[in-house]
């Protein structure tokens, strides 16, 4: 069973005034078959957690461990993490001028699988994945994320999720910037992925809206760089009703 | 590693000028041109047209003396093309604009003319290979495309040594000519070249300057129009590595009405003291109503220690134009793009190659000569492999 284990993770970023600690001891275990939601106010460190797991060079892990099925993730390069089975759908997907979506997807798939996908089935798979996310097949010939609308960028992330088929998916605010139809389409995609079995999903979000379509097994409230409270789906409902106030007060020192 | 030793200069930020918003500039057309070497003093590097160039290393090409070798010129082409040797001053479409061009003009001896007969549509590319043999030499080519002809001419400059060259191009009325000039001399080679093109009525010129090798390569391209309806697409690709200086200077002189020019130059730089210079001058004279022009220069700085200068100049003397604009940007390699690709499992080297080939993709697509684009892809791959080695060893030294 796929398991991502995060233990006492401390992460800082370099600022003009020296290092600034953003994550202050995160503990989290995501096992295959589980969907976790992380909710928290702006600036609480949710993206920092996502990027640190993916290995973005901006973030320095100062202590703690991250393992995937017992393997030390922090020791791996960014691309090695992806090949080990981690996937990050980014809050702000990056534009890559001059590189077509189809070239990008094929190159990524080849890297992840260690061999080029069979041409005939691959074209079908790509077209199906695009169609499933309500994206025109023409997107294949466009440059990666260039000129995509906010919603198209997010749907493109889920296209990649489905085609690359990782063990653990971290979705950083994939719901933000989506209208209600797009939200349903994206949620259906995530559910389709999760239902393949033995897949872990870590859904980072601001709003409970997406949780109407994707039911989390666990909800973590993230405040000031750590998990302040954990519970089941009912915790999300409480946040919906009362906001983060209770946690912010508790978190204030 | 600090990036303070990387200098990235851009003359102007992207913006465009509509009709009626002329930019004050030194009138480009007032610069002297002459067939007489004596009209040009030996440059000291402070002159406007030499201030970016390492003139100290160019002594040999500023010396008004006969060459010490004759570059080896090989030609081939499909049926229909005519090669002949003609007097240097038989065409005079070009006129030297600096000392090195005047010296090349006077010491190249006769010119090699490549003639595309009237209405001939050549099925294959014409090749002219100019090989420097290791010493100081000069060449003079004339490409003369007859009216309503269609042809591709590839001029390939290779070898070691110091080369001064002039290329004169005439595109007859209604003709479509593609000229690709490749500069890929050895590491120590030096090449100063001037191209002058005269675009006929309703004619189309695609002019491509590809610089892939050489210690100092400086190509000046000048375009004029012989009548209305002319169209010039001026493309350039360069990739300067450690210690290399790649310079391109363009001057498009719009005097005829209803003509177009579209300039796109893209370059990458990698390694210590890799240097590129791009000067794009466009003059729209008072008579040139209905002109449409755009020029673009983009530079991708791959490592510390490289420097790109980019100076677009647009001078507009009439309000009656279709459109005119320019954009210039120099940026460092975007690590966020690298991260995004790596986060999808693509190893760093391959991701880097993908980003760089993406950068060049649109311009390479416009070149329209498969043998050239294939060659470009190959050479860019080789250069990126060297760049990767370079940064790997730099990391090892600094212990990163
Ligand atoms: N280079 C930096 N210098 C200073 N502070 C930084 C830097 N980078 C990130 N931070 C801070 O780290 C904190 C966490 O940022 P992060 O993006 O992880 O928050 P988030 O929970 O994802 O917020 P949001 O809900 O807005 O997406 C923020 O307060 C942010 O300002
Ligand atoms: Mg965030």
Automatic annotation (TrEMBL), chain A:
Q: Which GO terms describe its molecular function?
A: ATP binding; ATP hydrolysis activity
Domain (ABC transporter) ranges:
4-249
The cross-references to InterPro entries, in alphabetical order and at most eight, read: AAA+_ATPase, ABC_transporter-like_ATP-bd, FeS-cluster_ATPase_SufC, P-loop_NTPase
Q: What keywords were assigned to this record? A: ATP-binding, Nucleotide-binding
An example Pfam family from this entry, by short name, is ABC_tran
Lineage, top-rank taxon, reads Bacteria
The entry sums up its family as follows: Belongs to the ABC transporter superfamily. Ycf16 family.
| NCBIfam families recorded | sufC (TIGR01978)
* Entry protein name: Iron-regulated ABC transporter ATPase subunit SufC
**Native species of this protein?**
Kribbella kalugense
Automatic annotation (TrEMBL), chain B:
Ranges for domain SUF system FeS cluster assembly SufBD core come to 137-359
Which GO BP terms apply?
iron-sulfur cluster assembly
Q: Which InterPro entries match?
A: Fe-S_cluster_assembly_SufBD (IPR055346), SUF_FeS_clus_asmbl_SufBD_core (IPR000825), SUF_FeS_clus_asmbl_SufBD_sf (IPR037284), SUF_FeS_clus_asmbl_SufD (IPR011542)
Q: Which NCBIfam families match?
A: sufD
Homology family: Belongs to the iron-sulfur cluster assembly SufBD family.
Q: PANTHER family, per this entry?
A: PROTEIN ABCI7, CHLOROPLASTIC
Write the protein's name: Iron-regulated ABC transporter permease protein SufD
Q: Which organism is it from?
A: Kribbella kalugense
């Amino acid at each position: 069973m796929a398991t991502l284990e995060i233990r006492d993770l401390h992460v800082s970023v370099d600022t003009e005034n020296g290092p600034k600690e953003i994550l202050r001891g995160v503990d989290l275990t995501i096992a295959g078959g589980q969907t976790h939601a992380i909710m928290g106010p702006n600036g609480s460190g949710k993206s920092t957690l996502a990027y640190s797991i993916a290995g973005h060079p901006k973030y320095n892990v100062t202590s703690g461990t991250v393992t995937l099925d017992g393997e030390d993730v922090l020791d791996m390069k960014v691309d090695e993490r992806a090949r080990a089975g981690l996937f990050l759908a980014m809050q702000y997907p990056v534009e890559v001028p001059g590189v077509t979506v189809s070239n990008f997807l094929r190159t990524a798939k080849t890297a992840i699988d260690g061999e080029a996908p069979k041409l005939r089935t691959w074209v079908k798979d790509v077209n199906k994945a695009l169609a499933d996310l309500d994206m025109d097949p023409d997107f294949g010939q466009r440059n990666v994320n260039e000129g995509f609308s906010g919603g198209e960028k997010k749907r493109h992330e889920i296209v990649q999720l489905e085609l690359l088929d990782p063990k653990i998916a971290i979705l950083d605010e994939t719901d933000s910037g989506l209208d209600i139809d797009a939200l349903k389409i994206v949620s259906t995609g995530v559910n389709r992925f999760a239902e393949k079995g033995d897949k872990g999903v870590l859904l980072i979000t601001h709003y409970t809206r997406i949780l109407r379509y994707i039911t989390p097994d666990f909800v973590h409230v993230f405040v000031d760089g750590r998990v302040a409270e954990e519970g089941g789906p009912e915790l999300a409902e409480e946040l919906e009703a009362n906001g983060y106030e209770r946690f912010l007060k508790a978190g204030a020192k | 590693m600090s990036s303070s030793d990387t200098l990235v200069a851009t003359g102007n930020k992207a913006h465009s000028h509509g009709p009626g918003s002329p930019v004050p500039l030194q009138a480009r057309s007032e610069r002297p041109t002459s067939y007489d070497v004596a009209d040009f003093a030996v440059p000291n590097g402070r002159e406007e047209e030499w201030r970016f160039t390492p003139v100290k290393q160019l002594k040999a090409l500023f010396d008004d003396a006969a060459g010490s070798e004759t570059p080896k010129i090989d030609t081939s082409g499909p049926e229909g093309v005519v090669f002949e040797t003609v007097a240097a001053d038989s065409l005079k479409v070009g006129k030297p604009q600096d000392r090195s061009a005047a010296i090349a003009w006077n010491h190249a001896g006769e010119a090699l003319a490549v003639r595309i007969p009237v209405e001939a549509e050549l099925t294959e590319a014409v090749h002219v290979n100019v090989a420097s043999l290791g010493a100081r030499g000069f060449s003079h080519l004339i490409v003369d495309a007859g009216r309503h002809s269609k042809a591709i001419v590839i001029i390939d400059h290779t070898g070691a040594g110091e080369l001064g060259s002039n290329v004169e191009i005439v595109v007859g009325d209604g003709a479509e000519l593609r000229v690709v000039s490749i500069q890929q001399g050895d590491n120590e080679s030096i090449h100063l070249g001037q191209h002058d093109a005269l675009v006929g009525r309703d004619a189309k010129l695609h002019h491509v300057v590809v610089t892939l090798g050489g210690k100092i390569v400086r190509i000046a391209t000048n375009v004029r129009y012989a009548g209305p309806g002319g169209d010039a697409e001026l493309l350039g690709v360069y990739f300067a590595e450690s210690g290399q200086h790649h310079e391109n200077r363009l001057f498009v002189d719009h005097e005829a009405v209803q003509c177009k020019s579209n300039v796109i130059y893209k370059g990458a730089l990698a390694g210590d003291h890799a240097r590129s210079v791009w000067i794009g001058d466009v003059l729209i004279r008072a008579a040139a109503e209905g002109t449409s022009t755009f020029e673009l220069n983009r530079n991708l700085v791959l490592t510390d220690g490289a420097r790109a200068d980019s100076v677009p100049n647009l001078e507009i003397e009439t309000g009656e134009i279709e459109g005119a604009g320019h954009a210039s940007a120099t940026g460092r390699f975007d690590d966020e793009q690298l991260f995004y690709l790596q986060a999808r499992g693509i190893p760093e080297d391959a991701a880097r190659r993908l980003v760089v080939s993406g950068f060049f993709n649109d311009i390479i697509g416009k070149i329209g000569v498969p043998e050239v684009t294939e060659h470009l892809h190959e050479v860019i791959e080789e250069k990126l492999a060297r760049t990767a080695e370079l940064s790997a060893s730099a990391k090892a030294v600094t212990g990163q």
